[in-house]
Structures are given as C-alpha cells and as structure tokens.
Amino acid sequence: MTGLKDRIKARIATEGPLSVAQYMSVCLGDPDAGYYMTREPFGSEGDFITAPEVSQMFGELIGAACLSAWQALGEPAEFQLVELGPGRGTLMADLLRMASLRPAFIKAARLNMVETSPRLREIQTATLSRGPLTPHFRNRFQDVPGGPLILVANEFFDALPIHQFVKTARGWQERQIGLSQDGELMFGVGTARLPDDAIPADLSSAPEGAIFETQPAANAIAEEIGHRIAGNGGAAILIDYGYLNTAAGDTLQALYKHAYDDVLAHPGEADLTAHVNFEALAAATVRAGAQALAPLTQGEFLLRSGLLERAGALGAGKSHSEQEAIRDAVERLAAPGQMGDLFKVLAVTNSGISFPPFDSAS
Ligand code: SAH
C-alpha cells in the first residue's frame, strides 16, 4: 500500500467521497506522490511509450507541419511556440531540429513549455540544452504571453481530469470514489446530477449503468487556445488517444508497468488516463471563434506529411537492422490497429487559413 493511497482514504473518511476528477488530479498531480511528480513513466523502463519516444520521425514531421503553419500565418516575425505536457522534451527537440531548416522560423520563435512537474522540467531542459532555443517554463497555458501562436500537444489532454456520470433510475448521477465496509477504495454513485441539457440527445435512451464522461478541464484549455488563435492568429496541433463523436462509455484506465491495472489499485504509481472527446475539444475552440479542421487519424496525418519518404531518407546507407528498426517504427506510428488509427490529430487555426496536410474547412 502506498502512502498516497492511505492519504486518499483518510481524506475520504473525513471529507466524503471524491469525484473521479478529484481522484485523477490527486493521483497524477499530488506534489509529493503524484504520478507525474515522482515517476519516470516513459520508455521501455516506464509504463508506456509515446509516439515521440518511438521515433525521431514523429517530432520531425510535426516540425514540418509547424513550418507549414508559420508560412500560412504569413511568417510572423515573432510568435509563441508552445508545447503542452512535453514529457521528456523529445518531441520538441526533434521538431526544432527539423524547423532549423528555416533559420527565420527559429529566430521568430519564443519557446514555451507548459509543464507542472519540476522533475520533468529538469529532464526537458537537459534534452533541449543543445538545441537552438531556451525554453520558458509555464505552469498553465494561460501564462503564455500573447501574440501569434503555434502550439503542439501530444498525449496531454488524456492526462486531464474527467468527470463520470452513471445512468440510474434517477437520472445521470456523478460517479465517485468512496470507502467500502472494510475501508478499501470503491466506486459508488453520488447525489450530484448532470443537468438533462448537458446530455446529448442520443444518450437519452442509454441503459441503466451506462457511463457518460465530461472533460471540463480539457475543454477550458481548448477554449482558451481557440480564443488566442481567433484573436492573434495561430495554429494548434492536438494529438491524443480519443474518439471523434460524443458517446457513452467508461474510458478511464490505469497503466502500470506496461499492463492495464485496476484504476483504484496503485494511486500515484500507475498512470491514469481517459480517452479524449475530440468533438467536444473542437467545439470548444469553435465556440471561441477559431476554426477546427476535420481531424485526421495519426496514420493519415503522418503519411500525408511524408512519413514514408522520411523513413527512406533516414534508412539510406544504414545497416539492415537499423533499416528494420525504422520500418518497425513506421508500423507502430502509422498502422491501423496500432497508434495509426487509435490516435487522432486535430488542427485548429484562425479562420480563412489553409493548413496542409489538413483539409481546408468546407
Ligand atoms: N507529450 C509527451 C508526454 C505525455 S505525458 C510525450 O508525448 O511523450 C503528459 C505530460 O503532461 C507530462 O509531461 C506531464 O507532466 C504533463 N502534465 C500533466 N498534467 C498537466 C497539467 N495539468 N499541466 C501541465 N502539464 C501537465
């Protein structure tokens, strides 16, 4: 049993059950024992491998997309380059190496890393130490200075807290974490109800026990991004594990040492994520006045961006086993059934901008 689990139990005993959102926030962000504060989650030693850690090609192709965005914006002489939740800093290092092909882009960019974990900030600083730009660290996206924006986020929104509501005979009631008779963490249902007008019409006939998720924290950030882009111009590329249309379903999951785990078993030790509702994210940016381009799957995005050509160039003159490793990485990043269709890519720009490789707004 972890210290954090004991503390969560003590808190529930005195203050009452936690919402799923409160539980996620504590497990991931507790300053002493939260997952991102204490653990080394990425890579083969950690709990999961993210796309930038699979291959340098991922960050390079996002770098190419950022160059295309900068061009579409009319090559502003100064802009805020932002990454949300940069992990080990690998994506940004690869992005900047690619973007260095256009020295004027690097000259114009002010680099902002939105990262709450002091430990990961140190790792990111080290990763970027040989790169062309010095990062400014921000606790929240709201702290990024104004001006045109080019923003990327990979597997950031899935770490933000969700609320879950369970369909019962009395309506949609908030799912909570309380204590069982013998003092263990257990799921239950609270008295808080989701207002009927917050439920999409096609869920009105969902069976009892169905679960509906909301992501107010993610949507608030998306709205702020949309607001900045609509006001000052800009482009955002948001990549995550998620779904394109609002639907019922329980997507909260724990990953512990590369295996799925009971969500309540290892607070602070297991990674907790939820799938991202891209329909809701896109709607939040549009509400703020920006345009959301039709989302692509990660596979479509990478192939349209030239993944196969980049793989060929990277493999030229390399040994057989190095070429094999590059082929494996292409499969892993872009093949259906792997990251290629599970991950989605949403692009947001100010209206009237065309942003290849995304389709223009119709
Ligand atoms: N983008 C990286 C890492 C994804 S993990 C990659 O693809 O490898 C999620 C990242 O978001 C971590 O860096 C974590 O510390 C950060 N993070 C989680 N919640 C956050 C929050 N509320 N504000 C800022 N950063 C957060």
TrEMBL record:
Keywords: Methyltransferase, Transferase. GO terms for molecular function: protein-arginine omega-N symmetric methyltransferase activity. GO terms for biological process: methylation. It holds the Pfam family Methyltransf_28. Coiled coil: none annotated. InterPro entries: NDUFAF7, NDUFAF7_sf, SAM-dependent_MTases_sf. The keyword Transferase applies. Signal peptide: none annotated. PANTHER family: PROTEIN ARGININE METHYLTRANSFERASE NDUFAF7, MITOCHONDRIAL. This is SAM-dependent MidA family methyltransferase. It comes from Roseibium aggregatum (strain ATCC 25650 / DSM 13394 / JCM 20685 / NBRC 16684 / NCIMB 2208 / IAM 12614 / B1) (Stappia aggregata). The lineage of its organism: Bacteria, Pseudomonadati, Pseudomonadota, Alphaproteobacteria, Hyphomicrobiales.
